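F.,

This is the one I mentioned.
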């Protein structure tokens, strides 16, 4: 959740670290810190955003070519300057930056206090600095290894020491750590986004590995063994463009990413459609296609927005195949006593590929004998590497904490998987071709919706002062309702509830009055008549409605009071029922964006949140 960037080489390191921090700020932003070691260690930390750290540094000249920096998302200890990373040992000789949680830190801390170490923070992380100090006898790598052997929990760790001006040590367990390979210089980061400006050659550290970086060399090895070896064959090329991780004139990353959605859908199906055969080909699943064909049960596990994509995946998989499909929140999955028989497939969906709950659930499923697959955006991420096979989104970096283009991409790819499996079963060539034709129209249909963004802005202005919102949908539009509500609450801090429209009469209808607008997702599909009844029930109780409806739906207009301004309709183009979420979610993303913006919220960095949730 926190961000790490570091460097060892010959350049002036300060601008590299500050720029890297800005690119990582979306991972956590309750405090930030930097340390550069030259003749002396120069340590600065500040509560709040990176801009506060810059103010704290002020005109102080930062000198040196070895350093590292951190953005924090607090787990242990409130956001404060002493709790911000980097943390030092007792004598300020070595510094550590840590992402993750040290579960046995209380015991370790007590032992270290008894031995005379002085702690300056409330964090769990600081124990690592003191443990390394305890074991240090001139060999920093060995001290790090011995310290980490005492630690229970998770870490993405970076360590530098005053006695080793040409060395940085990094290690990982369940928290990402990536090496950036340069010429006469090396970088390390928690996230590719911080590296691509400097190098596209990276090495992803594996679980329980550590690495020693010097300007001209890097070695990697297991945390369990003392031997570290140079391994250039581990270097992979990252194809992310630096401009993809910049705002390019948009006021926020979220808005930019909403407008990138036509391309995200195109990238999701590019090269994967076989129109003549009415099917899809997903190269990442080739190696497991026999097991997939033999599967009788798929369990989709994910969190947040990716969970909503999973809910949609269930509808479409059930529609196009004979599979029995379950969807579970990754954080709940592990508590179920599931009986896995041969033929169970678990699909983990995650934009970041690092979400701790999803990663843990995927691992759990694998140990219980399931075939684990991943649907992941970040290439080389933990879920991508730990699953047996999978599909990449190719949606490009998603920087905004609020997921948008990754959702649309996930739903598109779930449709491709369903189409491919359906065609291997009973789905007809004709139906397969119709789905492909409709898929290919989606990018331009999303562009049509985006060209009407001003209309959503107008609606947002009318409703931005309301404090509570209800999002209603049925069948394919139910997960869209959940997603629309999540978008609004996470970036505007307004109360928004997504509900299955059919459940309204079982309780929530009691809430309806003029102060509770209902956003009703009502495309013309198989659940349309029942959804219209729900809207009428809302209107009968004086509720205000914002409807997302199919172009040309005049019947709905006649039910709503649009002319006097009480209600609103926003039209989306017609598509197949299974694809309607890919269109209907777009106005909801825009509505959330504009309402949050009108309320002056920090859209790309909503309070208390982080982009990648690497704690359980
Ligand atoms: C949604 O806008 C949030 N960013 C959040 O719910 C997110 O979808 C969730 O944390 C899962 O992340 P992942 O897709 O990277 O696993």
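My design for it:
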């Amino acid at each position: 959740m926190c961000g790490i960037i570091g460097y060892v080489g010959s350049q002036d390191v300060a601008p590299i670290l500050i720029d890297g921090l800005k690119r990582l700020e979306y991972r956590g932003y309750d405090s930030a810190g930097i340390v550069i070691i030259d003749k002396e260690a120069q340590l600065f930390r500040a509560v709040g955003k990176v801009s506060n750290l810059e103010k704290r540094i002020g005109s102080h000249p930062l000198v040196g070519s070895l350093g590292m920096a951190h953005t924090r998302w607090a787990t242990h200890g409130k956001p404060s300057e002493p709790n911000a990373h980097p943390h030092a040992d007792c004598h300020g000789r070595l510094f550590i930056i840590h992402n993750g949680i040290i579960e046995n830190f209380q015991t370790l801390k007590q032992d270290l206090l008894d031995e005379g170490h002085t702690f300056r923070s409330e964090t769990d992380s600081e124990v690592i600095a003191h443990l390394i100090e305890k074991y240090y006898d001139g060999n920093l790598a060995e001290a790090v290894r011995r310290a980490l052997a005492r630690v229970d929990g998770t870490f993405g760790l970076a360590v530098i020491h005053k006695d080793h001006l040409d060395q940085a040590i990094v290690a990982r367990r369940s928290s990402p750590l990536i090496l950036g390979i340069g010429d006469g210089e090396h970088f390390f980061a928690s996230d590719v986004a911080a590296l691509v400006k400097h190098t596209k050659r990276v090495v992803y550290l594996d679980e329980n590995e550590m690495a020693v970086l010097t300007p001209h060399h890097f070695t990697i090895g297991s945390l369990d063994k003392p031997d570290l070896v140079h391994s250039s064959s581990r270097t992979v090329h990252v194809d992310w463009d630096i401009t993809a991780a910049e705002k390019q004139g948009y006021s926020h990353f979220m808005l930019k990413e909403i407008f990138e959605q036509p391309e995200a859908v195109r990238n999701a199906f590019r090269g994967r459609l076989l129109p003549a055969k009415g099917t899809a080909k997903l190269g990442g699943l080739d190696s497991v296609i026999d097991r997939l064909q033999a599967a009788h049960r798929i369990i989709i596990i994910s969190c947040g927005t990716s969970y909503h994509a999973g809910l949609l995946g269930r509808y479409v998989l059930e529609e196009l195949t004979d599979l029995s499909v379950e969807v579970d929140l990754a954080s709940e999955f592990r508590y179920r006593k599931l009986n896995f028989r041969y033929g169970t497939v678990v699909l983990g969906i995650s934009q970041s590929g690092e979400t701790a709950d999803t990663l843990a659930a995927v691992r759990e499923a694998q140990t219980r004998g399931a075939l684990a697959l991943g649907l992941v955006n970040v290439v080389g991420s933990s879920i991508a590497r730990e699953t047996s096979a999978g599909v990449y989104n190719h949606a490009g970096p998603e920087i905004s904490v609020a997921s948008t283009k990754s959702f649309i991409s996930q739903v598109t790819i779930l449709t491709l998987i369903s189409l491919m499996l359906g065609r291997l079963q009973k789905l007809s060539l004709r139906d397969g071709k119709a789905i492909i034709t409709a898929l290919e129209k989606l990018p331009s249909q999303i562009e049509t919706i985006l060209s009407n963004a001003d209309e959503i802005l107008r609606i947002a202005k009318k409703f931005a002062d309301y404090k509570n919102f209800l999002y209603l949908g049925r069948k394919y539009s139910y997960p869209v309702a959940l997603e629309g509500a999540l978008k609004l609450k996470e970036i505007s801090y307004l109360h928004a509830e997504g509900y299955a429209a059919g459940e309204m009469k079982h309780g929530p209808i009691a809430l309806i009055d003029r102060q509770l607008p209902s956003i009703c997702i009502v495309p013309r599909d198989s659940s349309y008549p029942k959804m219209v009844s729900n809207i009428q029930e809302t209107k009968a109780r004086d509720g205000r409605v914002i409807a997302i409806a199919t172009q040309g739906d005049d019947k709905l207009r006649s039910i709503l009071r649009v002319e006097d301004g009480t209600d609103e309709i926003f039209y989306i183009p017609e598509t197949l029922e299974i694809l309607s979420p890919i269109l209907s979610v777009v106005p909801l993303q825009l509505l959330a964006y504009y309402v949050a913006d009108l309320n002056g919220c920090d859209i790309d960095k909503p309070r208390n949140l982080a982009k990648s949730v690497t704690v359980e």
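The first strand starts at residue 3 and ends at 8.

Talk soon.
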